[in-house]
């Protein structure tokens, strides 16, 4: 006969060994404060390129074209003030399109619609590229602070890597990436860190909405819906080997993400389909060249010139094919690892998928490091690997702009000639090698946050899962020596010894 164990329930993460609220508040205050200081430094770094004079279009002068590369203060935010009708305050997408030469027109920008809205809002009160940079920074800074807070809640002092990391100084205001990073980290927080008695299905659904919003900002969080759905499919931390899969919950996750993407994009597609589609067409038509910063250009010289049609056509299908293969490989390895870990490692799989994208995509913009940085916080990657990647990234991020200046200043300079060119080569290949290593490491290392969210247990006296099938325990707790029936999908039980043959291993220590 199966009996419920009588005695003291195991302490939850919010009760046992948790720091006091005062210490937690202090930790979060320090992380957010230091993040704010670093964001200010990031703004000052980019603002070096603005002013002191401005031409009739609001472009900084004098000698902006040389200063942005020589002083390594270039930002897409300042640069795109001219050329996308941002300076004319045109509402994005609705009246836009793309011409035969691949140039965007009528207010269309090369980013998804929510990023386009942020750009438009930041430009409303601006009349120069300096004002546009400042307004963009003020809009995005709260997202950077929120990311620091979320990482502090999840991984505690390791969040200082976000708050004090060089990428925040180099890239916080290089492009419009802080909002999408906040969405991706927010999804992890909803599933694993938020104090709530929500079921796994509900947490997964809300997280999927955040990932859908992330897709409408910069696309990449949309890939994380797959591992999140697999995590819910396997019933999260309550998985039992051979137990029933939660197909309805996984479908809810996928559906919530899809509906979010449709709800955000549909009004723009209806109001101006050509302008909305042009943002995607622009990225599809983009050729591999020295501005893409990827190994596709630097690793296949001299065949990777933009006018080599055969090579460009090859990369146009090979790159996305390899990216999809890396996604499937990461998801499959995660399912295999689940047998040892006890639950599907969706955060680790998401990190590995991101590595595949960064390595294999034909464009690797400098600010993409901001996408990867939170995973260095959330997963216990060795500090040496983290430091190596940040050094390689900084060498690349600084070297590429000095190289562009050298090329502009010397008419006959060879593409591989000079210290800056060597720095770019070291950065490109060092970063590529580390991304391959990180793809493997992310799938092996444990998380730095508790897998079970705080206060996830039912209230005292309530029957577990009485009103929520997701919260129902898969195995009854039994006294030592009793036998528990682990029910499979058909209702037939597999007898196990409760003491000595645990149905699943303990979660990794964090």
Task: Describe, in short, the structure shown.
By secondary structure, the protein is mostly helical.
Provide a descriptive summary of the structure in words.
The protein has a two-stranded antiparallel sheet. The two termini are 36 Å apart. The chain has one domain. Strand 1 and strand 2 form a beta hairpin. It is mainly alpha-helical. The protein has helices at 21-47, 64-70, 76-79, 113-123, 129-155, 160-164, 166-171, 178-192, 200-218, 225-233, 247-271, 273-285, 295-298, 309-341, 346-360, 369-378, 383-409, 419-442, and strands at residues 53-54, 60-61, 97-98, 104-105, 483-487, 493-497. The protein is built from 18 helices and six strands.
Write the layout of secondary structure elements.
Elements: H1 21-47, E1 53-54, E2 60-61, H2 64-70, H3 76-79, E3 97-98, E4 104-105, H4 113-123, H5 129-155, H6 160-164, H7 166-171, H8 178-192, H9 200-218, H10 225-233, H11 247-271, H12 273-285, H13 295-298, H14 309-341, H15 346-360, H16 369-378, H17 383-409, H18 419-442, E5 483-487, E6 493-497
Antiparallel strand pairs: 1-2, 3-4, 5-6
